[in-house]
Amino acid sequence: MRELNKKYCEETFDENGVLKTFRLKYPDNYNFAYDIIDDIGTNEPDRKAMVWCDTKGNERVFTFRDIMLLSNKCANYLSSLGIGRGDRVLVVLRRRYQFWYVTPALMKLGAVFVPATHMLKRHDAVYRIRSGGIKAVICTVEGDTADAFDEARPECPELGMMIASGGAREGWLDLDAGVEAAPDVFERRETSVYDPMLMYFSSGTSGYPKMVMHDHRYGLSHLFTAKHWQNVDPEGLHLTIADTGWGKAVWGKLFGQWMMEACILTYDFEKFVPAEMLAIIEKYKVTTLCCPPTMYRFFLREDLSSFDLSSLQYCTIAGEPLNPDVFYGWREATGITLMEGFGQTETTVTVCNLKGTSPKAGSIGKPAPLYDVDLFNADGESCRPGETGEICVRCDPSPEGLMMCYFRNEEKTREAMHDGWYHTGDTAWRDEDGYIFFVGRNDDIIKSSGYRIGPFEVESVMLEHPAVLECAVTAAPDEIRGQVVKATVVLNGGWEPTEELKKKLQNYVKRETAPYKYPRIIEFVDHLPKTINGKIRRTAIRDGRA
Q1: Is residue 520 part of a domain?
Q2: 450: Cβ–Cβ under 8 A, 6 or more apart, which residues?
Q3: CATH number at residue 494
Q4: Among 143, 349, 154, which Cα is nearest to 232's?
Q5: Share of the chain above pLDDT 90, in %
Q6: Sequential DSSP letters for 19-36
């Protein structure tokens, strides 16, 4: 290993080996595909880049040379179709291995790749194509996603072409055949580190998804994510459980890990089955793992003693707040402390627990050295310890890793970035030691009879009750109090949804935390609505779509 990552950063450490400062350095023409993938593919051609497997028993191992050549072939093919610098290409490839050479191919062309979930329907596809000015769609033929684009196409004259992956499809170009026939040499093209590279559709609590635009510095910033938060081992195997339609995929399955010259594991599955995932971790000897708290919770419900998890060295957690029961439960079961982190689609990891530190249960950690982070109250003043405020990131000058803008939405960009700060819309408080504790989204805060109640506080208490497997707390309208706390609950096996149990849970919350926080409404359900990455969709619950 040549420690290529050191070419792109300067860092200092304290006497205990804990990171103090971290600064990126890069040329104006930095491009991840050329400067990382092709560099390793040329100088360490046999170094493993990815182990891919699926639920059917299929397996493929890709070296960095494989990825380099495949991305060259793909770039040649897409270029022959007229795709070039600045073109926006919607990429819907699930966890299929094609994603890992299509995206660097688009980077080589200077195009903008726009990942999307395979769960899109016709109206979702129409919105994304028209609002994003999408020139081409590259989509897997698996499932019914391609049907949505066929249905959307008559309403989208700006869409130049649809390209199918995984098999031929009538009316679509064939990606696999085109890549196979293309030459594997691709001369470097002119690109700028400040060019748009990646655009995500990010759903909020209301309205249509915003389009988050990032330049090439964003991918570079994830070097910090992999090296100092996930603690990726260059000679190990990293697994982030995430679908490629969401930002978490590039956080944990692309940029930083390959900058560290590490191998990633991609398990292509339809439905998350805890025992199957644990068996995969055991089989492939995963060394570092990152996934949402919900997945760790389900892991803990399995008989962990029946799995050999001795290869695991480090575990991180993000996507939603970490409850103390999972924090302590995982450490007791495996001896590994979960290192929580916080960030958004608009940023890289912004607040986190660094390797070498001792995290506090429930804390998302301290600001990452890449960012200047503060908490501001409603008066725009920096919060005192213990005071809840909005998490804000200094954006003047703009740090690497922060979005360029909300594409084609100057109003939303101005709302988020003003007075020199990017306003995340997330609230938190910090203690005397500077550790930050997440409270919730501004829009998720429940205001009841003059009290401000963070859903996470109530959820954490309810999840400690033996009857509760999962819980989502939201606001419900109330004529007298304005809003009241509602808890939507999935029960553990052996418990029945009764009025008596509702009263027991209410009294339990009253006992364990401030009585005004107790849920006046409790609804029992068989499952909670979630994104494909396991995050609870509280918006769907509030809107009655649970």
Answers
A1: yes
A2: none
A3: 3.30.300.30
A4: 349
A5: 83
A6: EEEEEE---TT--HIIII
